[in-house]
Design brief:
- This protein has two domains: 60 residues; 200 residues, Rossmann fold (3-Layer(aba) Sandwich), CATH 3.40.50.
- It has eleven helices and nine strands.
- The strands form two sheets. The protein has a seven-stranded mixed sheet, covered by helices on one side. A two-stranded antiparallel ribbon has the order 1-2.
- β1 and β2 form a beta hairpin.
- α1 crosses α2 and α2 packs across α3.
- The longest helix is centred in the first third of the chain and has 13 residues.
- It is globular and about 65 Å long.
């Protein structure tokens, strides 16, 4: 069977599991061929389908995220290693980098902290954007920190990126030019797709009955961390703008919403 024929069959099979069956099939095929998706589409459609491809399909049919199967996920200008125990980076989170870029421009911040860094997603994307910046990533998960350190090393950013175990900003007594944070914001009991609910860490997803538990704590901690002229970029769930903004009402910070590609307010940018 040729690659194009295998892709058509895989798309049919994955249609029962995924909202993006063709894309999933292409990403898995590129992984099996050990080439980029673009190279596969341009140069390999008439090649024989590689034997490892067939073994990947049952994993995706069971709901396992494509990023866990391939071990990689692209985000902003970088590619991150990911796997069980870490939240898969989402394109929506790139809205935080866009908001920071709008504030700082090409010159960029000198110091960055990423609260709840996961596999280093936001911190490493920002440091790749601004080569002179130095950063700190904090997370409560040893698994996430292991991925973050490995990603920093592979991307050549380890000399500028430091990672530490922690509980948000607890014990942190320095200020930063840029604060990045993508906290859990899903309401307990919310229905999520099977590939998220059954595979990704619930500690990175759920935040109490209203999804605001972690924002309440962050509203007390973030204002003291921002340098004059600095910025904090906080990811929020769709429809949470009013509730999260209310928690920062007495902080003395100026709040600016930023929308994702779907038109949802996805980032609250906080500045003095």
């Amino acid at each position: 069977m040729k690659v194009r024929e295998a892709l058509a069959e895989a798309t049919r099979r994955l249609g029962h599991t995924s909202d993006t069956p063709r894309l999933d099939a292409e990403l898995l095929m590129a992984h099996a061929l050990r080439v980029t998706r673009e190279a596969m589409l341009l140069h390999h459609l008439d090649a024989p389908a590689p034997p490892p491809f067939e073994a990947l399909l049952p994993r995706r049919e069971s709901g396992e995220p494509v990023a866990y199967i391939t071990g990689r996920r692209s985000f902003w200008t970088i590619e991150l290693e990911v796997g069980p125990g870490v939240l898969v980076p989402r394109p929506d989170s790139e809205t935080l980098i866009e908001a920071a870029l709008a504030h700082f421009g090409e010159h960029g911040p000198a110091t960055i902290v990423d609260l709840g860094t996961g596999p280093g997603t936001l911190l490493l994307a920002a440091m790749d954007q601004w080569p002179r910046a130095r950063g700190l990533g904090i997370d409560g998960s040893d698994a996430a920190l292991a991925y973050a350190r490995a990603n920093a090393e592979r991307l050549g950013l380890a000399s500028r990126a430091h990672f530490a175990a922690g509980n948000w900003a607890e014990g942190l007594d320095e200020r930063f030019d840029l604060i990045l944070c993508n906290p859990p914001y899903v309401e307990a009991g919310a229905e999520l797709s099977r590939d998220v609910m059954d595979w990704e860490p619930h500690s990175a997803l759920f935040a109490g009955p209203d999804g605001l538990d972690d924002y309440r704590r962050l509203a007390r901690e973030i204002p003291r961390l921002i340098n004059p002229g600095g910025l904090a970029c906080l990811e929020i769930g769709a429809g949470q703008e009013g509730a999260v903004a209310a928690l920062f009402r007495d902080s003395g910070l100026h709040l600016q919403p930023h929308r994702d590609l779907a038109g949802h307010v996805r980032c609250l940018a906080l500045a003095h």
